[in-house]
Design brief:
Helices cover 25% and strands 15% of the residues. It is of the alpha+beta class. It has one domain: tt1808, chain A (Alpha-Beta Complex), CATH 3.90.1570. β1 and β2 form a beta hairpin. It is globular. The termini are far apart. 6% of the residues are buried.
């Protein structure tokens, strides 16, 4: 099924927020349940990425990406170029032109294990 058809199905309410499916390579795939360790891991990764990717980038969690004509996955965490408002009309997706911004350099910081422990 093309992504455009999938989007119309969602817009008309045939599939809603409680329907845990994703469009991958033209097929509707049932999403796996998210148990507590998975949810905590997603939030920790997103928090760490937000510390690195600031102006000109934003971190998305479990939101759709327009990845070609037959896929609209909802990755646990991803980083996209631009501001949240840049995607009001359409989901971010694959780009053929190189981004105008470069990702920030990686800097030493707290290890993920230390992020999970209260101070």
């Amino acid at each position: 099924m093309p992504r455009e058809t999938y989007d119309r199905i969602v817009e008309h309410g045939i599939l809603g927020p409680d329907d845990k499916v994703e469009l991958l390579e033209g097929r509707l795939i049932v999403a796996e349940p998210k148990f507590s360790p998975h949810a905590s891991g997603v939030l920790l990764v997103a928090d760490a990425l937000r510390r690195v990717f600031t102006d000109g980038w934003h971190v998305r969690t479990e939101m759709p990406l327009a990845m070609g004509p037959f896929s609209e996955p909802e990755p646990d965490v991803c980083v996209v170029i631009g501001a949240i408002r840049d995607y009001r009309a359409a989901h971010p997706g694959a780009r053929r032109d190189p981004p105008r911004r470069r990702p920030p350099p990686l800097m030493p910081g707290p290890r993920l294990e230390s992020l999970s422990r209260p101070a």
